[in-house]
């Protein structure tokens, strides 16, 4: 769950998104490109909050600039989630076995954000089972 601050209202806005982690950085993408409200919100206020399961943290949203970076993200997603990404390609009017040239054109229409500088929010679940017990 990605929570941004509304660019018009100043209120928190939460959006469920799929994410990909690569080399310690989380990435989220918008199939709607730069028109997605959550994306437009973080352009105005890049401080976001992220919840993955019971883990909650803040991060700085850093939009990837240039279709080359977005193409690399697409390639990573395609390697890790081939069926889901091929279905997404079909939804964008591309063949499921799209070539790099076609993926590059799609990359120009998408928006991808790197979530950096993560910091925990509030108490986090304990990794130590002894600490997690209420009678310890």
Please provide a written account of the structure.
It is a single chain. Helices cover about 30% and strands about 30% of the residues. It is of the alpha+beta class. Strands 2-1-5-6-7-4-3 form a seven-stranded antiparallel beta sheet. A hairpin with a 6-residue loop joins strand 1 and strand 2. The two termini are about 30 Å apart.
Question: Based on the structure, what is the oligomeric state of the protein chains?
Answer: single chain
Structural class by SSE content: alpha+beta
How do the strands line up in the largest sheet?
Answer: 2-1-5-6-7-4-3
Overall geometric form = globular
Uncertain runs: 129-136
Number of helices: 5
Strand content: 25-35%
- Using only C-alpha atoms, the radius of gyration works out to 17 Å
- N-end to C-end Cα span: 32 Å
Total DSSP E strands: 7
Portion of residues within helices: 25-40%
Main sheet overview: 7 strands, antiparallel
Report the mean per-residue pLDDT as an integer. Answer: 86
List SSEs in N-to-C order.
Answer: EEEEHEEHHHEH
What's a concise summary of this model?
By secondary structure, this protein is an alpha+beta fold. It is 32% helix and 32% strand.
């Amino acid at each position: 769950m990605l929570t941004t601050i509304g660019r018009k209202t100043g209120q928190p806005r939460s959006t469920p998104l799929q994410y990909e982690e690569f080399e310690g950085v989380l990435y989220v993408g918008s199939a709607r490109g730069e028109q997605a409200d959550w994306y437009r919100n973080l352009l105005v206020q890049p401080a976001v909050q992220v919840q993955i399961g019971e883990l909650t943290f803040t991060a700085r949203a850093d939009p990837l600039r240039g279709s080359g970076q977005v193409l690399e993200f697409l390639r990573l997603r395609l390697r890790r989630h081939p069926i889901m990404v091929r279905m997404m390609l079909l939804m964008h009017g591309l063949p499921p076995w799209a070539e790099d040239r076609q993926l590059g054109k799609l990359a120009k229409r998408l928006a991808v954000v790197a979530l950096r500088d993560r910091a925990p929010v509030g108490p986090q679940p304990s990794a130590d089972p002894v600490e997690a017990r209420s009678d310890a």
